[in-house]
Description:
This protein has 20 helices and 22 strands. The protein is α/β, with parallel strands linked by helices. Helix 13 (326-344) packs parallel to helix 14 (362-369) and helix 13 (326-344) packs across helix 17.
Amino acid sequence: MTEFMARYNEWLEKLPAANPLKTELEALKGNETEIQERFYQDLAFGTAGLRGKVGAGTNRMNFYTVGKATQGIADYICAHGQEAMDKGVIIAHDPRHFSKEFSELAAGIFAANGIKVYTFPDLRPTPELAFMIRKLGTTSGINITASHNPKEYNGYKAYWDDGCQVSSEIADGMTEKINAVDLWHGVKKYDYQQAVKEGKVTVLDETYDRAYLDRIEKLAIHEGDELDLNIPLVYTPLNGCGSIPFRQMLTDRGFHNWKIVPEQENPDPDFTTVGYPNPEDPKAFKLSEQYGREFGAELLMATDPDSDRFAIEIRDDEGNYIPLNGNQTGYLLVNYVLEGHKTAGTLPAKGAMVKSIVTSTLSTIIAKAYGVEMFETLTGFKNICGKVPYLHEHGYTYLFGYEESVGYAACEDIRDKDGISAGMLVAEAAAFYRKQGKTLWNVLQDIYAKYGYFAEDEPNLVLEGIPGAERIKRMMVWLRNNLPTEVAGVPVTKIIDYKDGYDDIPPQNAIRFFLENGTWFAVRPSGTEPKIKLYFYSCQDSREKALAVNKAVKEDMLAKINSVE
């Protein structure tokens, strides 16, 4: 008998008769392909925590896999001593199926292990959780969320006392403890409601929400008469956690001519009017565009279900809504933050910004023009925000961090990407420039004209399941064994393979290629989704030429990658 079938039979045997998971598994009898998908591995715990489809099996998100992971993390915290246990854990959740139930299960497990627990009364944004870890001084933080994944997914983000998602070292330590937990008998449990009554779990009140918003609103660069607060705006939380805090932020800042997409205002675990709730995908803006046209909105804004990602569409000179990729929104934010500080005389002598290795270098050029150094890290905000202590030690002032996948970190006290603060700064920038008779579209064209005409494209190939994962591995092996010397007829002048690290950047399964004509691109598998991701950037003497060059390079490389069966 194969190992996955042995696991399947074990679950059938040990699950209680009335358990819905048992019923789900019984319905799979004879479907060996599906059984293998669910049981061929344990849901992997890494620096992004857990992420997977909800359902029965070791490779799924359910009460057993979440319980096992939580017990392992509890054991890891307990191994750090009583002080770590007393500082405790804070837990949040998003609106997905079982998010609330998984969060209460986790709270009960931590409480049963003698660890102090803080929770929120309802769903809250991921960045608010990250902020509260540092504000409350907890040892760890947990958020039950699958971020922007499709509705079938849920996940489990783990944080440490610095407010960042766990580092590789901590994730490895947690994984060792998780692997040692007996799935059926090794999890200590305590009823959530009883734990609240007995003071083992503290439910935070609205004053903590206010503290988070107050910190965000202190990031304001321009205020009052400097802004046209009558600018028409549309916002959608995509049925996620952003609705209440984003609306409160807009109200606090004095914006009064805005509309929220009503069908997407309240939590909906099925994301009925969205489908794929990723603001990076222009299709998520369909309803926003409809209301924007009716309302005459100049700017459309969206956050993903846990409100850490943020994306926009802006109107061009013909009145069309143009979706900006994460790099383009990053250009606007980097430029606005630096321009604002310089105008206000608050630009520090040693200013620093941080971006990922797969994010456009145009922002580096903008930063340099203002005398600010741009640092590069691996992808993920555990790396971007994890750079803050280094910057402090070397006398730098952190100003901003971002990566191309619509993630922005404007505040060093919130050490993760934050869609609420990014939204505030973009709305503020739009209102500031409108006062000057400009739109964000005009400003973006000015940036290209001043610093270089860049083109950006970030296609990815979705390859699900065991066959997909294996094909992605083969693609990366093939690429390393067949490093191109030219792409689209343009010679490759430099290659950086990060598999063993590079300079002070730790190892990652990623490769960057630099071409003779000012184009560069990168290839890497996603760490949280069944994708291989590609990133293409070209700088030419016009935007049209840059787009054409980028397209040719992209098509050639995609053909090469796709040829791997």
